[in-house]
Amino acid sequence: MTIIDGKIISAQVKQELKVEVEKQKANGGKIPHLAAILIGDNGASETYVASKIRSCEEIGFRSTLIRRDSSTTEDEVLEIIQQLNNDEDIDGFIVQLPLPAHINVDKIIEAIEPRKDVDGFHPINIGRMAKGLPAYISATPFGVLELIKRYKIETAGKHCVVVGRSQIVGLPMSILMQRNTYPGNCTVSLVHSKTKNLAEITKQADILVAALGKPEFITADMVKEGAVVIDVGLTRVVDTTKKSGFALKGDVKFDEVAPKCSYITPVPGGVGLMTVAALMYNTLLSARREIYQ
Ligand code: GUN
What we know:
CATH topology of the largest domain: Rossmann fold
Oligomer: single chain
Low-confidence stretches: none
Bound molecules: guanine
Order of helices and strands: EHEHEHEHHHEHEHEEEEHEH
């Protein structure tokens, strides 16, 4: 059993990006510039955005953080998006989710210029990804693909079961794993809260991607011997023994599932760390105009 080390791989990816940016700078190229819009005071979002900004600094990207309080109106957010869409120096930007309930998230995402949508959330990027055209691939699925690649995990002809159908993870993951490329060429099943006999299906998985957001939902009896288990879950649960008052839990009951696996990602230290690296990668692509000319 191999524990997939997201810490090492994300550090490698970031180091490679740093080298690329240095080369680009030396050649008089554009320094990638990422902007992030953060609305309200969601604790997890604060942490994620801080980590994105810190990663920009480490790699040598420019970054801009635009913060507004939770009373910000939808129109005000749309106005900020228009400014960023038109700002020549900004290569890519993200709107951190979740947004306060009074803001329509679909309207916000559709207002982002697809060329600058480094989160890969815009319908145009999702559509292009589904068609196999060049597109920004959203950070979490991208991070999972990179882990599979760097551990040289075979995927062709394997049964990949994705648990969860979120727009950000489950849905794109299921599309990416069936593509005629590597990683890909899987037979894909996507199971969700209305699936009957869910455990019977997960038990058939050669590659199991757990992305439903229910702490420790996947137990040993739901996993086949020798499976590759990718845990995308990251839920804060109350833990009074921790200084922060919470612990991070994945969707997989790691201690009992791990002994059955050929590969497994831990939480924390697995997929989560890769997502920021993937966003940085997309930002470099945006500065180089690699997806859209
Ligand atoms: N909230 C949780 N994950 C993400 C992400 O990848 N991007 C943005 N913008 N918000 C998120």
